Amino acid sequence: YRNKLKYLAFLRKACPINKSRGAFHFRAPARIFWRTVRGMLPHKTQRGAEALKRMKCFEGIPAPYDKMKKVVVPTALRVLRLAPDRKYCDLGRLGHEVGWKYKEVVAELEAKRKEKAAEYYAEKKKQVKARTQAVASVAKELEAVNKTLAEYGY
Prior knowledge:
Low-confidence stretches: none
Order of helices and strands: HHHHHHHH
Strand content: under 5%
Shape: elongated
């Protein structure tokens, strides 16, 4: 709740002369995160600007990245970092409460992506099982061949 109050206080900051001149307030969770990280970097130097260009933030998981293997950073897990009774803030909910309009759209797309991923994983498990059965069924026949290959270092 405190994070929401802090963000609402940030939203009130604007140029008194002309609001379009500055203190731009992002509503999308990816942009909120991007700006938070920008505050942690020396973004006015060339090195910091290049580091910020390399960082990519998205709502959900877009097309090229949904097929890539996911990586878990154990030191960043909420279960390990926060006390069990500690309250936390979800950027998607926070963005939605301050004016981001696409929470439902992203949730729907993520549900479709997860459904496709589950189908792909089930098919892959079936193929792996069939392959292990095929290898086991011809293991006796290939025993002599494998022995010969082992002599040559394969």
